[in-house]
Amino acid sequence: MRLLYCTVALTAALSGCAQLTAPPSGPQSPPQSPPQPEARPAPAPAPAVSPSIIELAGRPAERALLSGMRAYEDAQYPEAERHFGRALQAGLASPRDRAIAYKYLAFIYCTSQRTSQCESAFRSARRADPGFTLSKSEAGHPLWGPVFVRSQR
């Protein structure tokens, strides 16, 4: 029995060695590299947080712009002009807001026959925001429409 055990153990050991040293049979395939983890896209940057209307209304420049727009809508043009001037002096943060303040000033200047100031305000609006333009109805206005076209030359 002991001899049988030794023979079985010796056979198992030798067969294991034979498997390690035997040459591979058939064509060899190139070694495969370990699987690569999937490339994940970089996380998108966090969106810029815009200030709330309450925060904007608390800023002097933006508050003056809002007051100017309200006065303009109420046909209080001298008061609106003062508010727009204050808004620009106080330093409106947004280029678009600066352009809007200049646009309203241009409208006020044109309606009070201050054509050169109107043209200058339109140019300032475009300098503040190169994408500035008037809506179709604003551009067609008989008083400031032609001045706006002239300011683009």
> With helices defined by DSSP (H or I, 4 residues minimum), what is the helix count?
8
Give Rg in angstroms. 39 Å
* CATH class category name of the domain at 53-151: Mainly Alpha
Task: Please give the number of β-strands.
Answer: 0
Question: Which shape, going by the Cα principal axes?
Answer: elongated
Please tell me the CATH architecture of the domain at 53-151 by its name: Alpha Horseshoe
- pLDDT averaged residue by residue: 82
Profile the largest sheet.
none
Determine the N-to-C terminus distance: 112 Å
Uncertain regions: pLDDT < 50 for 5+ in a row? 1-23
Output the CATH topology of the domain at 53-151: Serine Threonine Protein Phosphatase 5, Tetratricopeptide repeat
CATH homology superfamily name of the domain at 53-151 = Tetratricopeptide repeat domain
In what range is the share of β-strand residues? Answer: under 5%
Name the helix and strand elements from N-terminus to C-terminus, one letter apiece: HHHHHHHH
Q: What percentage of residues falls in helices of 4 or more residues?
A: 55-70%
Structural class: mainly alpha
